[in-house]
Structures are given as structure tokens and as C-alpha cells.
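User: My collaborator and I are trying to settle a disagreement about how two of our proteins should look. Neither of us wants to argue from intuition anymore, so we agreed to look at predicted structures for both before our next call. Could you fold the first one, then the second, and keep them clearly separated?

Assistant: That sounds like a sensible way to settle it. I'll keep them separate. The first protein:
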Amino acid sequence: MPPPPAARIRLCTEFDRGTIDRRLFGSFVEHMGRCVYGGIYQPDHPRADQSGFREDVAELIGELGIGLVRYPGGNFVSGYRWEDGVGPRELRPTTLDLAWRSVETNQVGTDEFLQWAEGRRLTPMMAVNLGTRGAAEAAALVEYCNATSPTRYADLRRKHGRADPYDVGLWCLGNEMDGPWQIGHTTAEEYGRRAAAAGRAMRMVDPSIELTVCGSSNREMASYGQWEQTVLEHTHDLVDYLSIHAYYDGRQSDADYLASGEVMSRYIEELTATADAVVARHRSSKRLAIAFDEWNVWTTTPDDTATRRDDEIAVRPPLGEDRYQTLDAVVVGDLLISLLNHSDRVRVACLSLLVNVSAPILTRADGSVLRQTIFHPLAQTARLARGCSLVSSVDGPTLSSPQHGDVPGLAVAACREGDQNAIFLVNRTGEPLPVEIGVVDRPDQLIMEARTVIATPQRLAAGDPETAGPGSLDAVAADGAVMATLPARSWSVIATRDDRGWEDRS
């Protein structure tokens, strides 16, 4: 018999937040380090396709289960001329990327990325440069991507061999314009005007597109809250999404790190309240959504690849190639729980980045590619989190965090599609946690699968992450409840199906 529960979870299939947008499981490709060159694109690799993109990397991207990819930045976009990356490759200029102090060959640009995404059934999320450029250049890029008219940039796309438009539907109005590190950084007032002008021009080219405006780069910015308020005064009637970013640092105390999911939830709730207040002040019925289009953890193991001098300019230098540990995977799973629990407002999210740079997928010098520890909670969540996000009632222990105060010791998100449920759980505490899960209006459940990732004290070396995938979790269904003991500091998922009695046993 399982031990008596120390935590109880109650679900009702009639209480949900609505359908989960598949774009919640997105990622991000930026011209940074080895994300593009030596990551998704490596024409001299044995597994490269005829366009130069690595098929072995693409296979892992498919396994990861993402449905959306943001491109081309990131900080990179604020100094980027998209025209440099189109047309015959031999005629493209080699340019200086100021954001990452790198040499940009422009061998991958708009056409290559969009055709790569199209071939893998990935929805593109394109960003325009509002750091060093403006409305005219942004509208020109929309025309290049989406227009069918016999006009300059649509004709240029056709000249480059693409007759049909790409129909890119989701666009970012710049990147992190509140950050002093950003090329073209400016005030909220000026950015709000700049974004509104660009957005209107882009919509004149294609009225069907969705627009995302820059919110805070992180919750610790001095302008946090006020930035959003000012920017939305200029753009609330025009845009569809408020973009927010956050990276959670594994070098803080374990308790603070394990509270990251709760901190993310507060961040989302604070900024949805800010957006709602601006909209209400204008007596509008509009409901802005959140695009959490950069999120991730910074590993508990410091990056050992950023060894170049500050004044050195390099070709695809290895930047931020974190070697993730099992605790990082648990926290990523917790952050996914937060996103699921706010999926009524967070409609788009991008784990940053996709390959090599703080990424779930890592390519190595010997030509191989591997899954890092953080790959697994995203892949399992993207696979199982289908249908609607259910509201859960949780009675469990508390975790004391030095920086964030007392937070729930058990994080839970649940989803339902048809007669199937998926319950995602993180035990943030340092002790095993017996839990009881009850679906009050469907008490009889059959367990389909149960998996767990446990944060172990052992440090993984560069070649070890493939050994840190999810293991099995013992779970039983009896007496109208599902019971399991969650390991200390672990991420788990339990998938169940309604027991239809004699139908299931016939």
C-alpha cells in the first residue's frame, strides 16, 4: 500500500481555462554563437540536406515537439538589415554583428529560415528591427514575406525563386527595447510611438498579421510596470500580445531556484493586470495576451565556453553553451507548469534558445548531437499537454525561499483532451512527497504512463546529459484516486484515462 498522502490534488473536468494554444510550446533561433551556424545549419556535415540544414538536428527538434520558432533575434535583430540575408548567397555581404561582436556571413537569412520552418511544419514568429531601423523597413519585410502584389519587395521575393508568399502571421515589434544593452535602446514613450508607427505600416501591407509589442526584459528592470503602461498607451488598440522575457539563474540558492515557477506566475499576473488596467482606462473590451517569447534557466553549471577577449570579433563563437544539470530540468518543468496554469493569457512562449546557446539540443565537435537535461520536460509536456488546461485545487507543503518567501512546495498543472488527463507535478521540497490525485467527476482512472526526472547531486559532464532522461514513476489508481510518491526535488507527469468499466476490460 502507498503511504498516506502528504498532499492532495483535486480536479474537475468541468472547470478549465480554455484550450491550450500549441504555440505555447515554441522556441527561438537567433544569430548568436552556434545557434544557426554549426547548429541548425552546417552544410559540410554528413547529415546536411541539400540546403545545408542538419537533418539530425531537425529530427531532435521534431522529437522536442515544438510548434513555433522565433527569428532572427533577440539582440541581433536590432542591428540587422534583412536585405543583407536575401538573394544569391555569393552576393551577400559579410557584416559585423554588433550585438554579439561576431562576423555574420548572411548565408542564412529570411528565405532559408522560412523554408526550413515550412519544411518542418513550424510556425514562424518574425521580429523586425526597431533599434536602428523603422516603419518603412518593417513594412518592406512584411511585403517581402507576405504580399502577392506586383510591387518591389514581393517582386524581389519572386526574383529570388519564391513565387508564393510565406504568409507569416506573427510579428515582433523589435526586441527588449527597455534594455540599455539593446542597440537603439530608447525611452518607453519613444518606443511606444515607434512601435505604433511600424505596426500600422505593417498592417497596411497585410491586415491579417498579429503584432507583439516589447514589454520588460525581466521583472528586475527599474522601469518594470511603468514601461508596459507607457508603451501600451500608444499601442493597446493595435497589438495583440505583450512580449515578456525571463531567465532564472541556477547559481542562486536551491530553494530560490526551485521557487522560479512561482516567480514566473507572479510576473505573468502582474503584467496581465497592468495590460488590463490600460485597456480598461480606454473603456475597451479588448483582452491582450502575453507572448513569453524568451524564457529559460541559466544552468547551475557556469558556462565554460565564453573564453574570448572582450575586444575579439569572431565567426560563430561558442556563446552561452550551458551544460545543464538535472536540477535545471526540474525547474524548466516547473516553469512549464506555470505557463500551462496561465494558458488563458499566455498564448505564445519560446524556450530560448533552440540549439547550442542555453539550449535543449547541443551539437558537438565530433559531429554528434545530444539532448540536454532540459529537453525532456519540454518534450514530454508538449506531447501530453493537449486539450484544455484544468483548474486544480492543491493542499500540500510549503517551501521557504530566502529571496521569495514561502511558496507552495508542490506545483501542479493538469490538462484534459477527450477522456485523457495529464497531470504535471514538481516536488520542490527536499523530501519524498506522497500525493493523492482525485478527479471528482471522473473518479475512476486508468494509469497510462508515469515518468519522473529527479534532481540528483551528481554533476553531469559535457558528454553525460543523454543519461539523464526521465525514468519511471510508481503510480497506482485505486478507490477513486491516483496515488504516487514524488521523489524529492523532482518533475513528474502522470497520464490517465477515464475508466469506462466493462468497455475497458472487454
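The second protein, kept apart from the first:
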Amino acid sequence: MQTFVKKSKLIILSFIVIIFSCKDTAELRDKERDEQKLAEEYAEIQRLSLSTNCEDAKDWTFTSIGSRACGGPASYIAYSTKIDVNAFLDLIKLYSAHQYQYNQKWGVISPCSIIIPPTGVICENGKPKLQY
């Protein structure tokens, strides 16, 4: 009888461990999926940002992008005023909202220092560079 009780306890304990490890694995997959979505959105924003050669800094401006867990933007990004600006800014708003949701969902912690906005954009070797 004692052997049966010990085996039963071992089986129950093993089952509990398996259940909790499955939950952790599912959460990890969800988090990785969310991170992948953010990375894909950011890559598309970067692609659009760099879709035009930077030849005249007057044709370029910048905007904030992303959402830090502590509040405020994650960074700034340069873009040409010759692209579809409204569509570009809509993508940035969507990305920033998704990053905010990600931060809330996964309890992200970030530094609370203020990110100083750039003063402008300059062109270097055909690429935009934020000026501080």
C-alpha cells in the first residue's frame, strides 16, 4: 500500500510539473511572438525611413518612435518629407501603441531618464543622421 501511495504522489507531482512547464513554454512563445511582431513593424518603418537618399537635409525631419515602459518615446527616427508622411506616421503610431501594450503585458522595466529630442537632421553619405 505504501508503494502505491508513493507512486501516486510521484505521478501527481510529475503531472503538476509538466502542466506548469507547459504554461511557461506557452508564455515564452507568446512573448517571442509579440517581440517578432514588434521587430517586423520596426523593420518596415526603418525600410520606409531609408527608402529615399538623403541629399538635402531640408527635405528631412524627425519624429519620436516607440514607447518606453517608464513613459515617453523610445527614440527618434528621421524621415524624408517626400514619402507618404501620413502613412509613415500612422505606422509609427501603431508601432508605438504595440510597444506600449507589450510593455504593459510583459511588465517591462526601462530607464526613466529623459531622451533629449534631436535638433535636426543632416545628410551623411546619402543617409539621414539625427543631429543633437
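Some points you might bring to the call about the second protein. Residues 2-49 form the longest helix (48 residues). Residues 2-131 form one domain.
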